[in-house]
Structures are given as C-alpha cells and as structure tokens.
Design a protein that fits this description.
single chain, alpha+beta, Aminoglycoside 3'-phosphotransferase, Chain: A, domain 2, 2 domains, six-stranded mixed β-sheet, six-stranded antiparallel β-sheet, 12 helices, binds adenosine-5'-diphosphate, binds the ligand O=P(O)(O)O[C@H]1O[C@H](CO)[C@@H](O[C@H]2O[C@H](CO)[C@@H](O)[C@H](O)[C@H]2O)[C@H](O)[C@H]1O
C-alpha cells in the first residue's frame, strides 16, 4: 500500500516552527551548522494524533525532504514520558518524537508490504547513537528481538538501494544481509511540484548478538590486538557480496572506465573544495592522481556496489559478518548511488575505516601504522585483490575519493574528527596544506 501525503495544515506549520531548534540536535539532521529554511511539503495522517511530517530543509547545497513522525498529545505529556522525546508545544498539544511510539509503529506495520513479522510494538526500543536514520528494535511476542525498523530520515522518490538491494540479494540466495521483512512507501509532491513515490522505511531481520564492526575494530585497536583474521573474513564476505550483486544486477560497461573514474575524482574534489574551501590545498595533488588514473588502459567492469561500505556498516555475530545499510553515501544524489561502479570502491571504504578505528582506538604513530597495515593486508587477501600497479593506483584513487568525502562529512557532522581524514589525505598524498595558514 502507498500512503498519500496531504497538504499541511496550520498545526503542521506550528510543529515545523518547533523543529527549527529540535532538528539541529538530531544526529541525522543533514543541515547542521546552517540556518536552514524549514517548510512542510506534506503530511501523512497515520493514526489518531500521529502524523508524519515531510519537511523540506534548505541551506546552501543541502536541499532535502526529511521524515519526522510526531505524536500530538492534547495537554501535558503523559506521566512517565521521556523528556528527551518532547519536541515542544503547539497550541494545546505537546509534540512528541514518535519514531519509537507504539501507535506510529502499529500504523506503519499495517501499511507495510513484504513478508511481514510478528512483533510487539509496545516493547520497541529506539537505537541510541543514531546515524543517518533512526533505527527501532522490535521484539517478537516472546520478547526476543525479531526485527529492526529503519525510519529513513531523508526521503527520495523512486528506487531506494537500502531496501531494493537487500531484497535482490536475498532473492539470489546470499545470506550475508539481514532479510527485509516489511517496507512502506508514500506519495508526496516535491518542492518542485513533481509527484514522488518513495520508501519511508524498512523492517529487517534482527541479527542476534551482533557487534558493530567499527566498535569491534576500535576495541581491538585499543587493546593492541591484531585485526588480521576478522579483516580477512570480512574480505571474503565482501567478495561474496560483490558476486551476488553481479548475479542479481549484472555488470555495466567499462569502455570509458579510466576517464570516468578520473572525472569522478575531479568532481569529488570540486564538490569537497566548495563545501570545505581549505581543501583547495590538496587540489593539485589530487588532480595528479586523477591524471594517472585517466592514463590507465583498462579498468575492471562496473557493477552494483554497496557504495558507502565502512566498518560501521558491517555486523559481526557468532563469527560471521553481515553487511547492512545499502543506501550509499547519504550526501550523494540517488542517481549517483545506484550507478554501477568499481567493486574496489567498497574495499577502499573499508581500508579508510581501519584508519578511523586505529585513531578512535587511541593508536598513534608507528603503532597505528602497523595495526592498519596488518588489517589492510587481511582485507585485501580475503577479498582477493591482485597485487599489481593498476589495482594499487585504483585503490589509492578510490581511497582518496572517500577521504575527500569524509573531510566534508566530518566538517558538517563531527568537527572534532576532521583530523582523521586530514591524516588520511597526508598518508595518500604526502604532506599537504588544508588550512588557510601560510
Ligand atoms: N539487522 C540488524 N540486526 C541487528 N542490529 C542491526 C541491524 N541493522 C542495523 N543494526 C544496528 O543498528 C545500527 C544502525 O543501523 P544502520 O543501518 O547503520 O543505520 P543508519 O542508516 O542510520 O546508519 C547499526 O550500527 C547496528 O548496530
Ligand atoms: O553510516 P552512514 O551511512 O550514516 O555513513 C556516514 O556516517 C559514517 C559515520 O558514522 C561515515 O563514516 C566515517 O566514520 C566511520 C566511523 O564512525 C568510519 O568507520 C568510516 O570509515 C568513515 O567514512 C560515513 O562516511 C558517512 O557516509
């Protein structure tokens, strides 16, 4: 079933006015640090007093439609309400964040397509440390976690790789991804006046006892424990994922592979320097790598990839790795996220993650270099990356591309972490100047 958004009413406008202070405190808000203009573009009336506001947030190069489920309670919040859920007061209503609200969840499941699951919405638990979206764990009637609902925060019409790709991978028999159990779609009118239909969220099978790959790697790095074995197994899993993606989606042409990759790196540089002007200090060095890539005679065939693979997108449970979060880079447009690409891009994403894990785990200098070198060797061996000059250049270019993305991502979201991509740029390019200092 596709839910249909209606024109926002006065109450929706009042709620959106409250979001001006609430949204910037959300981890998933993509326009932090800006004075974004917020406008309601549509509302889904899901249940009595439960609405899903579709809110356009516009600031600089950010122009997105956000999904904000709210409960509108007449009078004061019910006793025992977590104060962290209170968005504010609109007229005689208390506005509550409803992502984990039983009424919202029951209505969501009633409107969903897919095989479905038997879950207890009254025992839902919102995952803390939310990232680009909001995840809610739903237990079955026996209290054991059964599914995890991802409430997408930035909406887009059309295909959503985070839902469509796992569905296809399960169809071709790959079991390294949690199976999608239910998904919802809605129709709305875009700020440009176009009719859009897009996904609102997905309920996926819960992986029991799963540990986030990034937390695991940080823990091991912090303890000085070599990560080679899990990294090798991860390489094997990622190779299996790429095979399954080819079985499901086929391969694209690579006729213009080198030129397209070089051009993508130059585009990334232009995007990054516009967003974070001091990155202009690396421009010449990045262009030199792009020029080397452009001279390659051939590149591997393009195929569907994960697109934003890092250690936070893999879960380890009972000695196995699972891959999640196929939405691609949240800062990139949909067309770019579903385009066939080099499979090595995913490998490069994980290589970048080892730098992050070493740094966040507290390693510095030679100890950090040795830990990451070992993890890198494991991943490359497990994946089966051929040790030749072409693969090395491609990986360098792809790591560089990802590091530029990270420099922007960290500047926007975690300014305290900008030193990590900065160090990555230095490792990949040699000493570079990315500050305005002389
Ligand atoms: N199928 C699953 N089983 C168990 N835990 C999961 C599952 N999917 C996601 N998680 C947990 O939820 C967190 C957020 O999920 P993720 O897909 O990365 O969301 P986001 O798009 O917000 O980054 C993950 O880091 C992981 O800890
Ligand atoms: O998981 P998301 O789809 O939200 O991805 C975004 O956020 C990630 C951080 O949460 C970010 O990843 C960067 O930080 C990770 C450590 O927190 C590190 O493991 C990754 O290598 C690094 O890129 C990701 O880039 C961003 O798209």
């Amino acid at each position: 079933m596709t839910l249909e958004a209606v024109t926002p009413d006065g109450l929706d406008h009042e709620v959106v006015a409250l979001l001006g202070t609430w949204l910037p405190q959300r981890r998933w808000y993509p326009a932090k640090g800006t004075d974004a203009e917020l406008t309601p573009v549509g509302t889904l009336h899901l249940a009595d007093d439960v609405r899903v506001l579709l809110v356009r947030a516009r600031a600089g190069d950010v122009d997105v439609v956000l999904q904000v489920p709210v409960a509108l309670v007449v009078g004061a919040p019910p006793e025992g309400t977590d104060p962290g859920l209170v968005v504010g007061t609109a007229g005689d209503r208390t506005v509550l964040d409803a992502a984990g609200d039983a009424r919202f969840l029951a209505a969501w499941l009633a409107a969903a397509d897919g095989p479905g699951a038997s879950v207890d919405v009254t025992a839902a638990r919102v995952v803390t440390g939310e990232q680009s979206n909001t995840s809610v764990i739903l237990p079955g009637p026996d209290g054991v976690p059964t599914g995890i609902l991802k409430v997408l925060r930035t909406l887009a019409g059309g295909e959503n790789p985070d839902i469509d790709v796992p569905r296809r991978l399960v169809e071709v028999g790959w079991d390294g991804v949690p199976a999608p159990l239910a998904w919802t779609q809605a129709g709305w009118t875009s700020p440009q006046g176009d009719a859009e239909v897009g996904y609102l969220g997905v309920l996926s099978a819960f992986v029991p006892g799963a540990q986030d790959g990034f937390e695991l790697a940080c823990e091991w790095a912090g303890a000085g424990r070599a990560f080679r074995e899990p990294a090798t197994e991860l390489g094997v899993t990622v190779a299996g994922m790429h095979d399954a993606l080819v079985r499901s989606f086929g391969v694209g042409s690579s006729m213009d592979g080198a030129a397209a990759l070089a051009s993508a790196l130059r585009d990334r540089l232009a995007w990054a320097t516009t967003a974070v002007p001091p990155l202009a200090g690396v421009a010449d060095a990045v262009r030199a790598v792009a020029d080397d890539v452009a001279r390659l005679a051939t590149t591997p065939p393009r195929q569907r990839v994960h697109g934003d693979l890092h250690l936070g997108q893999v879960l380890r449970s009972e000695g196995r790795w699972f891959v999640i979060d196929f939405e691609g880079e949240p800062l990139a447009p949909l067309a770019a996220r579903v385009r066939p690409d080099l499979a090595l891009r995913d490998v490069a994403g994980l290589l970048r993650s080892f730098d992050y894990a070493a740094a966040v785990g507290g390693l510095t200098g030679d100890a950090a270099a040795a830990w990451t070198a070992d993890a890198r060797a494991g991943l490359l061996a497990g994946y089966g990356v051929v040790d030749d000059p072409t693969s090395s250049l491609l990986l360098r270019a792809l790591e560089l591309d990802k590091t530029l993305y990270e420099a922007v991502y960290e500047a926007r979201n975690r300014p305290a972490w900008t030193a990590i991509p900065q160090a990555g740029l230095e490792r990949l390019l040699g000493p570079v100047r990315t500050s305005g200092d002389a």
